[in-house]
Structures are given as structure tokens and as C-alpha cells.
Design a protein that fits this description.
Strand 1 and strand 2 form a beta hairpin. The N and C termini lie far apart (about 50 Å). This protein is mainly beta. The radius of gyration is 18 Å and the shape is elongated. It has one domain. Strands 1, 2, 3, 4, 5, 6 and 7 form a seven-stranded antiparallel sheet that branches.
């Protein structure tokens, strides 16, 4: 992934590996370049240990090669581990911000 192609507000995906099932509805996952364990709610699928799972979130902060993604909690990872899902497009104004002179 090119360094400049991800910006704040973009929706990105991280491919994590399932570590183990914690409860019937929670799964512990290992996120690449993130040094801490992370658990997610997974009620629908029955993933097994070692399977890849895709986590999708919004970019909230960029600091060089590190990108913070909101996955319910902020997770800071290397930009190389991200895949762009949807690029953020700012809303367009229909009326000018300044009133007309009278």
C-alpha cells in the first residue's frame, strides 16, 4: 500500500489471525504489527484457530508509517498492514457559506 494513499476518514481493513475462542460470542485475534491481544464479538460465524478474519474500521490518526484505526477501540498499526476499502469524500455544499450582499 502506498504511503500517501490512506488519509483520515478512510475505511480500511486489517487481516487478523484468530488465536482462540474466548466465549461463545467472543474471539481473540492477533493483529499484525500491533503488540497486544485484541478480542472481537463474533456471534455469527464459527471461526477456528489460525483462520484469517477481516476487521474493518475508520482511520482516525496518521503519524508517519503508523496509522490509528478505530475498531471499537483505537488500534495503531503499520500502514503496510492496511487495505483501503472506501476512500473518504467530504460532503459538498449546496449553498455558499457566506450570505449574498444586500
Amino acid at each position: 500500500m502506498a504511503k500517501g494513499s490512506i488519509k483520515v476518514g478512510d475505511e480500511v481493513a486489517i487481516t487478523a489471525t484468530v488465536r482462540r475462542r474466548v466465549t461463545d460470542d467472543r474471539v481473540s485475534v492477533s493483529i499484525p504489527s500491533y503488540g497486544f491481544p485484541h478480542s472481537i464479538v463474533d456471534r455469527t460465524s464459527k471461526v477456528k484457530k489460525g483462520q484469517p478474519i477481516e476487521l474493518i474500521g475508520d482511520v482516525t490518526h496518521i503519524d508517519g508509517d503508523l496509522v490509528t484505526v478505530n475498531l471499537g477501540v483505537p488500534v495503531t498499526v503499520n500502514v503496510d498492514t492496511l487495505r483501503l476499502v472506501t476512500s473518504y469524500v467530504a460532503p459538498k455544499r449546496k449553498t455558499p457559506l457566506v450570505d449574498k450582499a444586500t
